[in-house]
Amino acid sequence: MGDFCIKKGHDLKLIGKPEKSMGDAPVSEVLNISPADFKGIVPKLLVKEGDIVKTGTPLFRSKFYPDMVYGSPGSGTVSQIRIGERRKLQDISIQLSSADESLPLQAYTAAQIGKLSAGDIKSHMLKTGLWFMVRQRPFSKVANPDSAPKSIFISAMGTAPFSPDAEFVLEKNSGGFQTGLSILKKLTSGSVNLVMGKGTKLPALTNAKDVTIHRFSGPHPAGNVGIHIHHIDPIKNKDDIVWYVDPQDVAAIGDLFNTGNFPKYKVITVGGSGVTNRHYLKIRRGALVKDILKSNQVADDVRIISGDVLSGVKTKPDRAIGYYHNMLSVIPEGRKRYFLGWIMPGLKRYSLSGSFLSGLMGKQETEMTTAVNGSLRAIIPFGQVESVLPMDIMPTFLLKSILARDIEEMEKLGIYECDPEDFSLCAFSDVSKMEITEIIREGLEFMEAEG
To answer: Strand pairing partners for 97?
Structure first.
């Protein structure tokens, strides 16, 4: 067990924090599944338009791992399959039926689970579609079932804006969570590292078995799994494989083995100053954004983000929330420009560096927009980026080596430990207005392609 206090970082105080109350579950008529959510997977279709599917029916499989299939999160009819350029599968839409039928899946007793081998567990997760819940670093892609991770991480704390409280989410599903932890323990010869905040009190977390418990405190990104990996079991080269799983997915894995029920639901938060009702919602996996916001009052001219405001992606009402996202953030578009904004007192302007008078008023909740507040500039090493990255990495030099495509230098500077999510706060604070997260993503893709 280890206690870590993160000093570097910053907590964004945004208006629209979700209340700890579960809203009415939205009714979904159509589910949408996008294979693009699953990095590292080349999908091969197993259904066609008009096919009748049940919950758990395989919709597509991995080209390179034929046993790895994705199960339908609902029963109904395959209403649309969109194919993009070069015959690339874009998404699959399922028109739900009134009868929610599920494929029969095997359930195990506690004694049987205790006797399962790692191979048995992998086989069951692959054929039921739950393997997609397991991801690996480096490259943040779906885990290779043939690899041997040196450790597995579960991050049960969130510091990003509007992130769900793991204690609140897991409070009613502690049994499935513990079973999931015990199952994951069989998949590694190393440790299953369960990370939580220092104030965590839920027994399902604090008394968890088959894990090594760590406690973190500090500002964002102290809750990012990449920060936990860096401080507990760092990735030193491309052959160091670490797996990570979201706490809700750990519980879903446990439920499948305990009951044989395919996981159809997950809990998300809806937050931001662009919506009236900011709360938690239990939604169908693959639910459309417009269904999630159906009973909510959404302001005009807003940006809907699947994920948090720092690392999420812009989405549309007719698209589904991302498979790995558990937040839906709605904030105003920033179309207003301030005349001589850099020399004004800025009493109502958000200040990370204290350059506005608002910095003297303490941390107050602010309505922030999508405005960049400036244009692209040359790289200016003011130290602002370094001040919010709690990793033993020199971000400015790393970015320069990525832009120069210097493989040797990128490796020396720790590219394998990086993920765009961990650099999202750097992009927010950067005075040069660089797309830092995109540069990190391009660097990782380049390194993976070069082998």
So the answer is: none
